[in-house]
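ugh ok fine here u go
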Amino acid sequence: MKVLDEFQNIVDTIENTMQIKLKDEDFVIGQEQMFHIFLHETSHAVITNQARWVHDLEEEKEIAVDEILARLLDDELSQIIGLHHHSITEHVDELSKYPVQITIEEFARLKEKWQRFYFPNKNVEGMANELLSFFNKL
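structure:
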């Protein structure tokens, strides 16, 4: 996979440039964040793989659907993998920077639907449609 090859290329370039050999123990700061960022960005790739049409939406709706769905997905995957996951409040705070206008209560209701109906069936596209419908009603 080219993406994973690029990570190795980055490490190789740093090691060669700095004339060092990195070890896992060298990553004492930022390791958890590195894994979480990779998981989050991979969640966006899952959305593209299963609901590519999201990227054809008008920009505001694309950002809202893609960013909320990525957070729902990476919360579930974080729990499976054993990584820290954000609270609903943290997600809503992050989303407001895009800006995606959603309340804590609305996010909680969408998360419940995701957990009850869509994630158990691995139905990313179904949740994308649910989110689009939610934002079309606003």
